[in-house]
User: Fold these one by one.
Assistant:
Number 1:
Amino acid sequence: AVSPSYLSRLFHRQVGVPINRYRNSVRLGRFMEAWRAPGKKTLLECVHHAGFGSYAQFYKVFRSCYGEG
């Protein structure tokens, strides 16, 4: 069996970014797609659709990527 930390280091070496940053960028992309898609969806529905567990988690990741604005 391989440890999660080994897989994380291997991912970073192969892809060039830490796995957490990659995962968060994919989730933010999914959020933006859901938010822009036609149809009435709440912000929280888009957050959950993107794979975030809560609005607080989304907000923390969004702020870290896009700043305070």
Number 2:
Amino acid sequence: MNYWLIKSEPDTYAWSDLERDKKTTWDGVRNFLARNNLKAMKKGDMALFYHSMSDKAIVGVAKVVKEAYADPKDNNWVAVDVAPVRKLKNAVTLAQIKADKRFTHMVLVKSSRLSVQPVKAEEFDWIMALGD
């Protein structure tokens, strides 16, 4: 299993929207590196759900339920389907992550603008511990 972080502006698509919808198409990604990360996702992989812009926090955990396929809005790009697993009891903020030396090499810290990024297993576990 692999671990990922997916970002969304809460005004565009929030964690509460994913909980309500039970599943969504993660589309609209228009960055080549992020697209390659979408292509690498496998069914069953876990993804940290990050509210960008205003909140700047990881708020939940989603699961990849359908692997990469043509983005319905533009066949030159790809999408995956994700479903909610659970909301974190405590949102884990970007400030918390940056202040914790364990996350020095996390992609979120080094390349915070990337909308779909890999997460190491130990980083995922540390986030989960902070979120509980």
Number 3:
Amino acid sequence: MTNTDICNMALSYLARTMIKSVEENSEEARQCQMFYETTRKLLLRSYPWGFANRLIRLAPLDRALPGFSFVYKYPSSCLAVRYVYDTAGAGRRIKEKAPFEVMMTEGDVTVIATDVEDAWAEYTADVRDVDSFSPEFSEALAHYLASQMAMPLTGNANVKMTEYQLFQALA
């Protein structure tokens, strides 16, 4: 499966012509180009999809931020940090969610600030490989993409709403 296949699923839900590539010169391809990446990232950020779940020991930074004991490097390819915890708190991470904040510091460096020493993070990665997507994610992405493209391609608000509801049922 490719991103073009997911776009074609979305286009089929809208009863539109399929495309051979998102690079082709058609209105359908232009709409896919416009919405695919932001919709994929938004959907990944919004829900804890298992295929995109990652665990990493956070790298401490030599920075101080008022109100926090520790500052850590933000993981590369991270779209959303779900939990921050130490080794002893791993089993309680959901019930006893440790407070943390993701923020930008001087020099536009994204960091995780917390009071957790020797921290681990569970996060959602920016998975781009369509073959790694779960079938549920691919289907949800296609319906959400269809809801995003419905007005420009069909002008029908009812189709937009129906596709959004189908997306919600899968997410």
